[in-house]
Amino acid sequence: MPAQLMxxxxxxxxxxxxxxxxxxxxGILNGFQETGxxxxxxxxxxPGRVMLTVRIERVDRxxxxxxxxxxxxxxxxxxxxxxxxxxGGGIMPVQGVWCQVIEAKESETELTVNVxxxxxxxxx
Length: 124
What we know:
Layout: E1 4-9, E2 33-34, E3 48-55, E4 75-78, E5 81-85, E6 91-93, E7 98-104
Antiparallel strand pairs: 1-2, 1-3, 3-7, 4-5, 5-6
């Protein structure tokens, strides 16, 4: 399904200083990048922790995003929203319909991520 994605280098990523030109993943220039019609996407990033976020037009069809449960230490509530810290001192709210921390090893040249969205709960 078509979607938009955003990849953000996290504040605690030890590789960010080693790859300064890629602290903003290539192919994602201003916020979100459009996927193909089939939902496939690719971008050039750096090793270490990167937050991958997905949003779609019909957000009401899917369960709203929650912070990645594998990394609770990365998320803080700010102004009623769950947020995370980015490399360079930024703060981003958790947004969209899916997010996950991607932690690529320096030796990896390609990483595949499958995004599975949960349908929204039925309302009576």
